[in-house]
Known about the structure:
Blueprint: H1 2-6, H2 10-24, H3 28-57, H4 62-108, H5 119-125, E1 126-131, E2 137-141, E3 146-148
Helix pairs in contact: 2-4, 3-4
Amino acid sequence: MAFNALLGDRAGLLEDCRLARDVLCDTTAIDAELTLLRSEIEVVSELTRKAIYKNARTVIDQKEWAERNNAYLVRHRKASERVDELESTRSERIGKAKMIDRFIRDIGSRPLALTAFDEKLWLAVIDTATVSRDGNITFKFRNGSEITE
Length: 149
């Protein structure tokens, strides 16, 4: 019954899912920032390499060199940590997009009304089912919709 209620407006549901996927799972800004950070890491790595080479070949105040080298290391560490954060966020978004795509595909291929329990459909579209004290069941679908029966 909950699934049939959800499919009352299948076209609207599928459009909502596509819009949610496009907004919530977009990685364009993350990809752009990752490109900049990777470029920063390359620049800092090259500066560090040149500083080490210069220190090995010429007489340099070691305190000054250590401060400069430490500054490079800090820049590199901060950029690398941010890359790790962004890659994690990007992976999460891609995973959510795949989940929403599966939901869209499963909903689109099903009949508008179910007459019998379908285990594959259950596994594909239901996130949780919560039974309250009064006996009502709240079904939370993978697209975020909730229906109480």
